[in-house]
Design brief:
By secondary structure, this protein is of the alpha/beta class. It folds into two domains: 210 residues, Rossmann fold; 126 residues, 3-Layer(aba) Sandwich (Rossmann fold), CATH 3.40.50.2300. It contains 13 helices and 14 strands. Helix 7 links the parallel strand 6 and strand 7. The protein starts with a helix and ends with a strand. About 4% of the residues have low confidence.
Length: 378
Amino acid sequence: MKRSGLLLAVLVLLFTRTAFAADPIRIGAVFSSTGPASFLGEPEKNSLLMAADSINAAGGILGRQVEIIHYDDETDVNKCVLAVEKLARKDRVSAIVGPTTSGNTLAIMRNMERYGIPLVSCASSDKIVQPVNPWVFKVAPSDNFAIETLLDNILATGAKRIAILTVSDGYGQSGRAGLLSLIPQAGLELVADEVYGPKDTDMTAQLTKIRGLGADATICWGTNPGPAVIARNHKQLGMTTPLYMSHGVASKKFIELAGDAAEGLILPAGRLIVADQIPDGHPQKAMLLDYAAGYTQRFKADVSTFGGHAWDAMLLLKAAIEKAGSDDPKAIRDAMEQVTGLVGTAGIFSFSAEDHGGLDKTAFEVIRIENADWTIVR
């Protein structure tokens, strides 16, 4: 009886360990797959699923499959809060990727310490990681790095008087704060500080005021559809001074919405949308081309910078889980601060306890829209 009891105990232990090892690693995701920010959220959802499938096909993480549990917040902040609550309390995920927008991220990030679950945001506001929230990381390059890249280009043209036109949401407010700080630091004069609403359909009044103030260049900070409206209004008014856009329009959807008014516009963007134009020896090139080929083949659509953020988030979580040797949320959080030299679509990431963004200014190229496509400004 003793031997049979011992054998039974061993069999139960082996079964338990095998069952545990077979349990998937559950990763939550909240994206704006529908609603005004769907042009950002849909490629993010697609890319995260593609990344998980690729990892699973290669054997998973720590020998376990990855399961993605995704909710669509419909670009609604209240639905985003509820979705994150559900992922944390009901689905018991090990980490969460998203949200898509800065405003939604800022609304939920204060809850992550209470949940004890790490968040990897796909939004870009500097406020997401400054000051550091121990449980919150992001993979989109910070707004200030994009602003510095634009201002370097503007300075090279000899322009002195700058106007800004920013959207009144979380992304626009973050960009506006950076612009107000960095423009005078660059030795430029701010002559107009105009704002528009996310649902506004005509910005000729703001642009007419900017033209009357004699600005040498205008920087528009927002995501679609507003910037496309501004580009069309700028052209309709016959304005010839340069119009710069933020990295929030680094999607072919912007070119589609703006039409021929997009021609000649300049923006900062990651290398994903110009992967074929970067030098062959660049450490990102092979990965960018592989991701782009896989995405276009699977989804029959152009890649966008934003889909790349979700891909990078999954790469970061994979590296952290492997480093931690566990899918325990606290162990993942700790390991994320130790991930360095990670080659992603947005750049080469190096995180630390003091830096939960992991990128610097070198993540950006200056891009001009030519012939309805992207071209690196040399």
